[in-house]
Write a structure and sequence with these properties.
The chain is an alpha+beta fold. It has 2 domains: about 5-145 and about 270-365, no CATH class; about 155-245, no CATH class. The protein contains 10 helices and 8 strands. Strands 1, 2, 3, 4, 5, 6, 7 and 8 form an 8-stranded antiparallel β-sheet that branches. A hairpin with a 6-residue loop joins strand 2 and strand 3 (about 180-190). Keywords: Cell membrane, Membrane, Transmembrane, Transmembrane helix. It is a multi-pass membrane protein. InterPro entries: LptG, LptG/LptF_permease. This is LPS export ABC transporter permease LptG.
Length: about 375
Amino acid sequence: MSLVNFFPSRTMSFYMGKMFLVRTFAILAGLVLILQSLDLLSESSKIIAYPGNGDAEVWRYVGLRTPQLIATFLPFAVLLGTILALSQLNQNSEVIAMKASGLSAHQVLAPLILTALGVAALSFTFNDRIVARATATLEQWKKVEYGPLPIDRGDRANVWVKDNDDLIVVDQIRGRGDAAQLYGVTVYERTGQSLRSILTAKHGVRDGTGWKVDGVQRFDIAAGTLADLQPLRIAEGVRPDQFTLSHINADGLSFAALREVINDLRVAGRPTKALEGSLWHKLSGPLSSVLMPLLGAVAAFGIARSGKLFVRAVIGMALGFLYFVADNFALAMGNLGAYPPFLAAWAPFLLFLMIGEAVLLRTEE
């Protein structure tokens, strides 16, 4: 059988695909509208609390938060859209007509799976180009309590690193590798857990295996004195990546950017397992849309007059929600290091793919 003959007629395929898309995006719009309204109830007061903020900042928050909600709940909307579309086709005896024409259950589902594949591709592009940037911006905006957001030039801010007993806090880091420059350096010099002195510097650059800082002052805790010092070396053995790669938000990075960060961390000899799981999940997450027609297919087959259509729809929803629970659990186990990154991202998808096929074959084929 050729690939073209595997699908129902062109008219029927377009009809089913359109029905599926309309219901999916209608449900998604309703979910996002309700959840965004509820989210604003808690966040709008925090936004308005900052002096000078008004309606423009509230709408800016909506513009940054909405892509996150869309990315999170699109798979749920695909599941519910699948179940509604298949239930209606079953209720109207259209599935029976397709079966009577000689189509198998997989051929009946083929238009929905192909459409879901397009939704998955759209979801990946949307997450990579829009959601990642919105997440990164919103995270920074929350850190300044919805105040003026500094211009993002790719610099890192408010980073701390532990150097033996000492704590090093840097207001801003520019550049990467040996070209990295530190601005607003504060070193809490400690012996054990006791603070001896506080050293501050305006600027620091890489110097061999340490950092040379200028504009230096040291406050001695015991003597209570503040002294100006000549430029000196600090943080011997502290690598540039400990400053530039100290805080990685995988959700705020695109697929390519996250892969580059993982490579940098691997070269520096730092653990990357949790980030590798997030990288794989950037692929498996959107692809879960392809799984939803298979999990919701239980609502398509069986005689609607039996009165069990609602029960089958509930079973389809239960299978879909169980997948999301398993997916989140596996990702959490991957972040803890209990699962390998590839397994954490792909095991739930492959498991429920087999479950969906088993249920479909058992009930229909």
